Amino acid sequence: MAKVVWNPGALLAPVAPTMVSCGSMEHPNIITIAWTGILSTHPTMTYISVRPQRFSHKLIADSGEFVINLTTRELVRACDTCGVKSGAQVNKFELMGLTPKRASQVSAPLIGESPINLECRVTQRLPMGSHEVFIAKIVAVNVEESLLDAAGKLDLQKCGLVAYAHGNYYALGESLGSFGYSVRKKPLDSRTPQNQRKGRGTHADRRQKPISGHGARTHSGGRPRRKAAGNPQ
Ligand SMILES: Cc1cc2nc3c(=O)[nH]c(=O)nc-3n(C[C@H](O)[C@H](O)[C@H](O)COP(=O)(O)O)c2cc1C
Known about the structure:
There is one protein chain. The chain is 12% helix and 28% strand. The chain is of the alpha+beta class. The chain has a domain at 18-171: Electron Transport, Fmn-binding Protein, Chain A (Pnp Oxidase, Chain A, Roll), CATH 2.30.110. β10 (162-165) and β11 form a beta hairpin. The strands form three sheets. A seven-stranded antiparallel beta sheet has the order 2-1-5-8-9-4-3. Flavin mononucleotide binds next to β2, β4 and α1. Residues 17, 29, 31-35, 49-51, 54-56, 80, 83-88, 131, 164 line the site of flavin mononucleotide.
């Protein structure tokens, strides 16, 4: 490959174009954030990088809480609008016909139409030039029940997640393999029962466990709260 060298730029792609809800149930706002990611598995830490000029910056700085909502095909138009209009001028929930739902641990609302909502509490703030980084602990994860199979395993492919690369939104395409597939000796189906007991399988194979024993419930009631599947990183 022949290369040309460009000046430094934020050309990391694809990234997740998330919809971050903030403020309160009474005065909710949504800001589209692509500069985000996971920092640590245990404790589960994330960050969002927000320009101090944004209306949402003060809301997040004041409350120390926000929710990262994953964007799907159905939500991509709303995601884009929330990234170009300001909550200082318009109620973006109303504008886009989205539903603010009460979160279980934080004062910021969830976006009801997003299938996965990560409730976050800020632990640290880092000025970073044009943006300020809010480092936060993920204190609860809300998962759309229809994405779970009978055993409680999450199938994210069902919800049509969206990626963002160099100014464009893309629907995720076909799966090219699962974690560890490149070194897996035999397909899972052909492993002997003995091997299956010994082997760890893929991280997606590991079943989710309730956070705490029997009585734990979701804020919406019914099912036990579950811990996110173990991550490889
Ligand atoms: C795809 C996309 C990604 C964005 N990512 C960020 C980001 O990571 N950080 C940021 O400060 N602004 C980002 N923005 C811009 C804000 O979402 C935008 O300025 C928004 O209107 C601010 O809303 P607010 O004034 O209600 O806070 C992004 C916009 C788009 C469309």
